[in-house]
Prior knowledge:
The protein is of the alpha+beta class.
Amino acid sequence: MVRIFYKEKRQIRKETDVRAIAQLPNLIWVDLQSATAEEEEWIETKCQVSFQTPQEIVEIESSARFFEQGDMMVANSNFSKIDQHGYHSYPVSFLIKNNVLFTYRHGDSKTFADTVKKLKVYDEPFDTGVDVFLLLLETRIEADADLLENISREITSISKSLSNEKKPKQEILLKINTLQENTMMLRESIIDKQRVLSSIQRSRLFPDSYRERLRIVLKDIGSLIEYTTFNFERLEYLQDTFTGLINLEQNQIIKIFTVVTIVFLPPTLIAGIFGMNYQVMPTIMHPYGFYLAIVLMFTSSVAVLWFFKRKNWI
Length: 314
């Protein structure tokens, strides 16, 4: 699917027929979402641009994330999204040539839909593709902030559940691990944008009139990175708390086994003494010898329990 946005007077119009791209005035944004090979070739020919392959877009080298080619500026970044299966990321390629923005992607994201809505309802003018590019970034940063806030709410929920949980459950630890992975993925995506935008800020092709706005976007990204660090610290604290609760529970179990073992040591010793197989042994022929041994074993166990209780060990 290809969506072509152009400006007619003060209105932003949309066209989906790529064959009409040569006749449209004041092109601003050409969005290629899972476009066919024929659509890609048509746009490359008519607009004199060249899109990277999906393999080239996902390369992590700095030279692949941003570069300039003649009068064309190319930047690649990862966008995050959440669905019923969790958090995911997908690559997006941005090309700016002659103040026209080209976006090349194979995934879908609410960010692009929200950007289109803002194009229609905002009063501020969108004269070039650079305006749309910065609007996309600002919308993406807002979406990343929402995802981080969602993770923060889940962390708070886990914290409350740990406070009310007498026995920690394995599901809580698995959820903490999932949140750590999601936070890490978001942090990687945000840092990737920071690296790309820092390169754009130094580009000779990026208009000087937009550099202050780009600087504000970079500042917002820095705030999100600090937020991810805060979430990481909270998750590590929860993980340590969970581990501490597990250790306390295990220590309590070991303590019970230890007390039971020690309580039965004196009776075992007495039973061993009276059970020795000798011909001559005191009280062996006494009519109350058996009952005396039972009393001694019971008394020794009670004495041990009383001693532990006095020391507040149980």
